[in-house]
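Q: What does the assembly look like in three dimensions?
Context provided by user:
Components: two
Sequences:
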Amino acid sequence: MKNNLNLIYIPAIVSAIAAFLLAFTFSSTKEKIEEAYRQEMLKALNIVLPKHNNKPDQEKVELEGKEVYIAKEDGSLVGFAIKSKSSKGYSGDIDILVGIDKSGKVSGVEILKHAETPGLGSKIETDSFKNSFKGLGKSDKIMVKKDGGIIDQFSGATISPRAVCEAVTEAVRFINDKVITNSKISGGGK
Amino acid sequence: MRFSPFIDGLWKNNGVFKQVLGTCPTLAVTTSVKNGLGMGLATTFVLICSNAVISMIKNIVPSKVRIPVFIVIIASFVTIVDLIMNAYLHDLHKVLGLFIPLIVVNCIILGRAESFASKNSVFSSILDGFGIGLGFTLALTILGSLREILGNGSIIGINIFGGSYSPAIVMILPPGAFIGLGFIMFMIAYFEKRKKN
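A: Here is the predicted structure of the complete assembly.
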């Protein structure tokens, strides 16, 4: 009888101790992890946005479920940044951050998360690829050359650049159609 | 010999090359030296902790429920490593993040808990965890360097061949992992057999 009870309370005690340790680790690393993600986001925002001196991650507005980060220089609006994603990558979603200046043209693109093939699709992380979007606007064909657009694909990897193009296009459309025309956000400002 | 569990673990019982265990992380993360090393060290940490704890409680855990108890212990340490790595080694975590939870199902760890830690003293279990863990790290680093050199033309991120070298991309793709591991195991078997004769 005693042995049978052992079968219950030994695993229970071990699990309880494990739960306690996990809770302790979680609560002591929580802030640090959030800070790391915030720094990462801030770094990406600084790369994609035009020159600004406010804190875009604190001045964001929500529009149709999307967060739009607003960049200002001395209080006047200079651009927006928005997260965009494509599920058409080679493996998993590609999350990107697109910066767009106040005239509606792309000021920068940064890849936040991807799981593309190292050495092939992962070249979407190179600066030369990311910079090829700079200055493009709503009327430009943001597509890979294979699809009749103006963005260079890589030899052996068309799918990943195509997915990034799709995500950038979506972001450019959204900002141009919904944000710039929205007087509450781009009008007078704060 | 007092330190023999460590030496045995490092080479004679090498998890990857000799027992062919833990091949999932071995094949999946070794696209570069850095990834292999990071994964190996994370696994080593989990292995040492789980071996130590399991050896401590080996006499009070009824054998009928030992596997679930071991898994709870291993999973807890893996989650702790995951959180700590995310907080303090954020960039490495971004690369390895997907594979860290997989340490739980690495047969090497449960294998050592079953075959070593549940039968030996705490001290030799820690040594065994250390040896097996470093052996695993060594294997991952060797495979990682082979694949990074051939497949990316670099080592630890530093380009070694200059611009004119066009890398054999297949080596950093999944087939390259199998080719690389097979080749290394062939070399080891070949030289050990020759030494014996």
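Follow-up: The mean pLDDT of chain A is 84.
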